[in-house]
Write a structure and sequence with these properties.
Length: about 350
């Protein structure tokens, strides 16, 4: 294969449709903008040469930095693991990829997901013949990519804002599934084309920023799958924001504020560890007595009430009288006494050691 800095030489036997445009027998490079002579040798397979040329082009005219077209979610995007834990949110963004089959961890800013690490890959690889372009895109010039993203979340009804940049052919924007269910049938589903710029160059097509919103049923792991149905399209940028519709006081995220949340709170009492702040009901950074009061004031609330409050059309349920709350108060008193006794024993032990 012969590569010259200011030339891209292509074997061009015949004309072939590519990326919605007919591939001509010349290219213009960004550096020289000159007409190039076609490669007339017969020792190189044209597909290999095209792939090398394509990789270079994706790193050149098609390499586009993040645009202002991308949106922020309607909720506060977390800026720390503590915030993500307390608010039930996650944020992850990919701008470059290192492997078509994964794993590809988020690489922009700090991924804030206390539930685990999200991943993106081409689920059709290697059959799709996809590869990583020099710019870090996942691309296939004559195969169909099937992007898949896995996002660990809190076990709760979850709102999504998913944003994606593609380059090349126009994808089927409605062919998105969430845990096997068509996203178009989920509550709150919407699709918006945020931006479109002609890609230009020999391959044509467009650089398009997409956005989907929807609300999914509770799951600890969400799998998002796209079936594009077209060749010559790339995954360039992916941003996924989630918001778990947690019931205030439902510390264990099972959809109801009950005695199990008291146990969850009690086991984390006194902690400031971000991993424990799901029990920090008032969000002051420490699991303490105020969070017990926060829980007690909401005892009996359920997910149905919360969903109605955020406007998803679920009717509120009657909040039961907390008849068992008195028993839990007794339990709290016993728990606090045990902690106080344990603390006293530790103090006495320390004093004995110091005297000795």
């Amino acid at each position: 294969m012969r590569l010259i800095l200011n030339k891209i030489q292509l074997h061009t036997q015949g004309r072939r449709a590519f990326g919605g445009a007919v591939r001509p027998n010349f290219l213009r490079t960004r550096a020289t903008c000159q007409r190039l002579e076609p490669y007339r040798g017969h020792s190189v397979h044209h597909r290999s040469v095209v792939r090398v040329a394509l990789t270079g082009l994706l790193a050149g005219p098609w390499a586009v930095s993040a645009q202002a077209a991308f949106s922020t979610p309607s909720w506060d995007r977390p800026t720390s693991i503590g915030e993500a834990t307390a608010d039930g949110t996650t944020y992850q963004e990919w701008n470059t990829f290192s492997s078509v089959s994964g794993p590809n961890a988020p690489d922009v800013d700090e991924p804030f997901n206390p539930n685990g690490v999200a991943n993106v890959f081409d689920s059709a690889a290697p059959g799709s013949a996809s590869f990583i372009a020099t710019s870090g895109n996942i691309y296939s010039f004559d195969g169909v990519i099937e992007p898949e993203a896995t996002v660990p979340t809190t076990q709760a009804t979850t709102e999504f804002l998913v944003q994606l940049r593609t380059q090349g052919s126009d994808i089927d924007v409605n062919d998105l599934t969430v845990n096997g269910e068509a996203a178009t049938g989920l509550p709150g589903y919407s699709y918006t084309e945020l931006d479109r710029v002609a890609a230009g160059g020999v391959f044509g097509g467009a650089i398009v920023d997409h956005a989907w919103t929807f609300t999914a049923d509770p799951a600890s792991l969400y799998t998002l799958e796209w079936g594009w149905g077209v060749t010559s399209a790339s995954v360039d940028v992916l941003i996924i924001d989630t918001l778990a519709l947690l019931v205030p006081g439902d510390y264990n995220a099972d959809g109801v504020v009950d005695g199990a949340d008291y146990t969850f709170w009690a086991n984390r009492f006194g902690s400031t560890d971000p991993a424990d702040l799901a029990a920090d009901g008032n969000g002051d950074g420490v699991v303490d007595g105020a969070d017990y009061t926060f829980w007690a004031n909401r005892f009996g609330d359920s997910a149905a009430l919360s969903l109605d409050e955020v406007g998803l059309g679920f009717p509120p349920v009657a909040v039961p009288e907390p008849a068992s709350l008195a028993l839990l108060l007794v339990g709290l008193g016993a728990f606090m006494r045990r902690r106080a006794m344990a603390s006293s024993l530790v103090d006495v032990s320390k004093g004995t050691e110091e005297v000795a």
